[in-house]
Amino acid sequence: MIKMVNVKKTYPKGILALEDVNLSIGANEFVSIVGASGAGKSTLIRLMIAEERPSEGKIFVNDRDISHLSHKQVPYYRRKIGVVFQDFKLLDQKTVGENIAFAMEVSGMKTSEIKKSVPKILKMVGLLEKQQAFPKQLSGGEIQRVAIARALVHQPKLLIADEPTGNLDPGNAWEIIQLLLKINQFGTTVILATHNKEIVDALQKRVVTLKDGHIIKDQKVGRYSLKK
Ligand SMILES: Nc1ncnc2c1ncn2[C@@H]1O[C@H](COP(=O)(O)OP(=O)(O)OP(=O)(O)O)[C@@H](O)[C@H]1O
Ligand SMILES: [Mg+2]
């Protein structure tokens, strides 16, 4: 599903964010990306979603080389993946249902299809009863679930989340992780960048550890530990 080959990423002024990154992620995997602040987690994710280009090396997603994707090609590429960020913003003037519907409209879905799909997706994330609520009336955990619902609009085979539990208390964080696990069980590859040791240890899934821009560990069933 994803293959990174000898990837290096430097930002302007020569800041080295990633180097010698070789990583293969298969279909239906659930992979946590861990590492200290500045280790390169978000950079790795920005490369995967084609928000950044590698300085060296190649990145393949579903056998397509995305290393040199033009800005024009990005929206079409993104349609095939779901992306969730920590600081996700909803449209405050629209209800939860309208926010999801809007994402569907933007992607060109038909009105009849949208009408059917919105409740389905909200049910999936456990927010059907909040369809008419406005973002200001939601908790942090609920907002994050709307973010996930929005990412599911295209029924992606790949869901990428950067610190989706970053601002949440442990209870809400767990609910988000349970939801990601459910999505994974339905056949979507999930990639989760996180600082959350408790969650990573409890997951018992693959863990890729970054340190100073290098992958120092890649464990099939891993724990959160930043040492080699
Ligand atoms: N847009 C940018 N321009 C310049 N340097 C950047 C940029 N984004 C990140 N960096 C640098 O690249 C390195 C890796 O940053 P990155 O954001 O990938 O780390 P991270 O593991 O996600 O950290 P955190 O846990 O704090 O989110 C850091 O040294 C950071 O300062
Ligand atoms: Mg980050």
Can you give a write-up of this model?
- This protein is of the alpha/beta class.
- It has one domain: 3-Layer(aba) Sandwich (Rossmann fold), CATH 3.40.50.
- The chain is built from 7 helices and 10 strands.
- The chain has a 6-stranded mixed beta sheet with strand order 6-7-8-3-9-10, sandwiched between helices. A 4-stranded antiparallel beta sheet has the order 2-1-4-5, with helices on one face.
- Helix 3 crosses helix 4 and helix 5 packs parallel to helix 6.
- The longest helix has 16 residues.
- The two termini are 26 Å apart.
- The model has no long low-confidence stretch (mean pLDDT 94).
- The site of adenosine-5'-triphosphate has 12 residues, from strand 2 and helix 1.
- The site of magnesium ion (MG) has 3 residues, from helix 1.
List the helices and strands and how they pair.
Blueprint: E1 2-11, E2 15-25, E3 30-35, H1 41-48, E4 56-61, E5 64-65, H2 74-78, E6 81-85, H3 96-106, H4 111-124, H5 140-151, E7 158-162, H6 170-185, E8 189-193, H7 197-203, E9 206-211, E10 214-219
Parallel strand pairs: 3-8, 3-9, 6-7, 7-8
Antiparallel strand pairs: 1-2, 1-4, 4-5, 9-10
Helix pairs in contact: 3-4, 5-6
This protein binds adenosine-5'-triphosphate and magnesium ion.
